[in-house]
Amino acid sequence: MKLTKKVVEAVDHPSQGQAFVRDDELRGFALRITPGSKTFILERAIHGRVRRMTLGRFGALTVDQARDLAKVKIGEIAQGNDPAEARKQRRQSATFGDLETLYLERHAVHKKSASNDVTLLDKHLAGWRSRRLSAITRADVSTRHAEMGSMGSTTNANRMIALVRCMFNLAQDWGLHPGPNPAARIKLFKEVKRDRFVTPAELPKLWKALAKEPNPYVRGAFFIGLLTGARRSEVLTMQWTHLDLQQGLWRIPTTKADRPHTLPLPRPVIEELQKLPRLDGNPFVFCGRWGKSHLVNISTPWKRIRKEAGLHDVRIHDLRRTLGSWLVAAGASLPLIGKTLNHSQQSTTAIYARLQLDPVRAALEANAITMLTYEKENTT
Fold first, then answer.
1. Which of 233-242, 280-289, 339-348 has the lowest mean pLDDT?
2. Would the CA dihedral through 283, 286, 291, 294 be positive or negative?
3. What angle do CA 374, 376, 380 make, to 5 degrees?
4. CATH assignment of 203-360, given 3.30.70.890, 1.10.443.10, 1.10.600.10, 1.10.1740.10?
């Protein structure tokens, strides 16, 4: 098919790895899609060897601009030039934009959190793209870190430092920048662990808001995420082949812990899954737009749902924390909760011990009675 703005916008991001959509009109012109970006490329044989050249990311370039640039590169190749080799030579004076492109192609493509990196780059570091790597100083990075922190985003500010530090380390490995690393030895902000979860008084409001959601896949994704505690990416990429509804089992093949995880499904979850329509040719349970892949962006519907429920400060990840806190209240042990949520470290599960005060209250009540009874029995 011919690459157009509509076609590029309609293509869904893969959950991992990369995919290609090649243009039928201009041979070699294509779109590469990764979990975090869409990039125009040109594939061409140069001196008997197929070379793949990056033209630029969609958004920074329009489809027409990328097509015109591809034609220019094809013309250079026809004249005996090698644009890929010329680009390699220019790396001696690489810009942050050059490093960003290579980082997304070579490194971020293998990360589950690639989309988070893209957001940080677009929102906070876009102004550096035209700057030479050698011109970006420690003061520049420290100032940007302070600016992000002053806006109340200390966690993202720290993530930005980690991203820039990683990128410059890779720049040294790839021969783009000899050093030093401008993100080294910058003191991070102290982060406060988030402990928000949906309380017993709030939960009925959330169920009512979910019941009003018109999209069955969005409604089902949040319903199942809340009752299983699975991570957002795990829920959204659920496939019918991962499920055994007869046995009530969900095998998650890839998790944050880099190991498969089998989760027993409660009866209400099974019933909700059985209600969902299945689309021919789509292996995913929660189908996205046009039914071609899975749901990707559920932040917008979540804002609508939480507004309806009056839970304005509840984030999507808080639903996972909600299950853990309710299991604590029900008397479940921390090892059992850790197994349910597929935690690698027991310290990760320990947060739920402080989220629920009911077991603490019950223990203190029982102890107070014991102590007072002991005092009375020993004074008579």
1. 339-348
2. negative
3. 120
4. 1.10.443.10
